[in-house]
Amino acid sequence: GDAAGFATGRATIAARADGAPVLATWGGLCVLERSDDAAAAKAARLGAGPRTLVGSPATVAAALRAHVDAGADWIVLGPVDSSDPVNGPLAGEVRSRLAG
After folding, report:
1. What do you get for the CA distance between the two ends of the chain, in Å?
2. Is 30 helix (H, G, I), strand (E, B) or coil?
3. Predicted model pTM
């Protein structure tokens, strides 16, 4: 969902937690590549769905920034092509961009 919905859900859970700490997690599918064009081609080849995040680490991090700003403590990316070894380093780049 969108970041506004995420923020609303997080606030609702926090209100019901009666002061207990709440860690909010966003998770979703992604297709990562070095460039947006390569990611788009890969997503088309894999038949990625319309809600899949597709792009370079910079593009995916930019798409996730609103969720971090809305209170996501954890981000879980599920690569559509989980057996591709390039996913680890590219996901690491996404993390670095969100942490910085």
Report:
1. 24
2. strand
3. 0.90
Q: Cα angle vertex 48, ends 45, 51, to 5°? A: 150
Closest residue by Cα to residue 64 from 39, 29, 88:
29
d(CA 52, CA 74): 18
> What is the pLDDT at residue 73?
94
With a cut of 80, say whether residue 1 has pLDDT above it. no
Q: Where are the beta strands (DSSP E) in the chain?
A: 25-32, 53-55, 74-79
CB 4 within 8 Å of CB 70: yes
**Which residue type occupies 84?**
D
Per residue in 44-69, pLDDT tens? 999 999 999 999 999 999 999 999 99
Listed as own residue / partner, the contacts of 34-40 with beta carbons closer than 8 Å and 24 or more positions apart are 34/90
Coil/strand/helix, residue 24 = coil
